[in-house]
Amino acid sequence: MIFSRKPSMRRKLVLMFLGTTVAVHLILSAVAQKMTKSYFYDSESAHIENKFNGLNEKSSLDYTDPKAVKHFGKALINIWNLTDNKVTYQNSPILLPIESNNFFLKNDGDEYTSMWELEGNHYLSSSFFVNKENTLVLGLNVNHHIEFFEAVGTLMFWFTTIVSLLAGIYSAVIVNNGLKPLKKLEGYLARIRPGRLDIRVPKDELPEELENLAEVQNSMLDRLDLGFQRLSDFSTDIAHELRTPLTNMTTQMQVSLANDRSPDEYRDILGSNLEELERITKTINDTLYLAKAENSLLYKNNETLDLAKEMSQLIEYHNIIAEDKEIVIEFTGEGELYIDKHMFQRAMNNLLSNAIRHAHENTQICVKITHPNKSLGISISNIGDTISESTLPFIFDRFYRGDCSRENDSTTGAGLGLAITKSIIETYHGVISVTSKDGLTTFEILFPPPNSTS
């Protein structure tokens, strides 16, 4: 099919350009033809009137006298003298169509010009009031003008047809050239594959109107590239996290089966395997929890929490672990927060356990609740090793653990705690950040004012 039902930018642009060109040309042609006709008719009417006035001034003619009218009639092509709307004299065999609807006489003393047709001939006539009984009608044959207008009309028709054809071809060429940048953009996008997300659309090669589109496309590709990279890293990390305990279990089972052992030895091996299975289970559960949190799939039973009470209970629980390292946890501040209690406890537990794990012995951990600019802030600081500047941007990434020496330590998690904490905080439109300088590491959480979010 030449014309499909699907909208086409090319077809629309061509038709719009062609339609505008033809419409403008037709309007200009109609205006020009009308002005030309008016000019010719006005010129002929003025010619008739000038002849009448000139001859009228040179001779005092009695328009009621046929002999006098004969002398006057020599100056014009056609003349009719009417008395009481009846022809009393005419200098040509042409019958004046007084009864026709195309011819009118005016008896109020003003000149009246009329166009009329008789037996295929066209006439332009003017009537002049002489007295109450007599009217003089002067007329000219304007067939040559009519033929000229018809010739011009035919010329305009063919000219418009040719112009329309040329305009259609020209508009098609212009539109095709104008859409070439889109084809170039299409070519770049067609090269994008899952393994070629590094391709970017060069804005310098596109016109100004497409620069914003190219920028949006490049931003989308950046997000896709980041998403694929994170997915690839996540797959690698989860495989690594599961491989280590599974390898340990396999090795222990192979060693235990190599020789006969006592029930106590088998019990120790099974206990060790159980610890590895619990570690795998925790990693899987944390991964699922993080995925749900990042996709807003967690069930939230929100309530207004007294943060002073909640933090005091959490600190009391963690004091048992902190006392082993002779660490003192200090807490100041108060406030309320509308949040799911279990999610809040999980986030704070992750931060407190992380602070205790990495704090030096005989140091202090400070927990503060503040209210900057009507917002609610929670900060947890500890004294330990300074986190390098290169590590800080990745501290909240999945499976990231800055201390490589503890990678296989069963006392550490899988590196999902801070990632889960960040997802929980962002679920409630909060922001979490970390700073580390001169051994002082501080995690800061900032929740917006209560009325700023739903």
UniProtKB/TrEMBL annotation:
SUPFAM superfamilies xref list: ATPase domain of HSP90 chaperone/DNA topoisomerase II/histidine kinase, Homodimeric domain of signal transducing histidine kinase
Keyword Oxidoreductase recorded: no
GO molecular function, one term: phosphorelay sensor kinase activity
Catalytic activity: ATP + protein L-histidine = ADP + protein N-phospho-L-histidine
Principal location class: membrane
Gene Ontology CC: plasma membrane
Listed InterPro entries: CztS_silS_copS, HAMP_dom, HATPase_C_sf, HATPase_dom, His_kinase_dom, HisK_dim/P_dom, HisK_dim/P_sf, Sig_transdc_His_kin-like_C
Entry annotated with the keyword Thylakoid: no
Annotated EC: 2.7.13.3
Membrane topology type: Multi-pass membrane protein
Domain (HAMP) ranges: 176-229
Histidine kinase domain boundaries: 237-451
Cellular compartment(s): Cell inner membrane; Membrane
Pfam families listed in its UniProt record: HATPase_c, HisKA
Segments crossing the lipid bilayer: 155-175
Keywords assigned: ATP-binding, Cell inner membrane, Cell membrane, Kinase, Membrane, Nucleotide-binding, Phosphoprotein, Transferase, Transmembrane, Transmembrane helix, Two-component regulatory system
Coiled coil ranges: none
Function: Member of a two-component regulatory system.
The protein, known as: Sensor protein
Source species: Leucothrix pacifica
Top-level taxonomy: Bacteria, Pseudomonadati, Pseudomonadota, Gammaproteobacteria, Thiotrichales
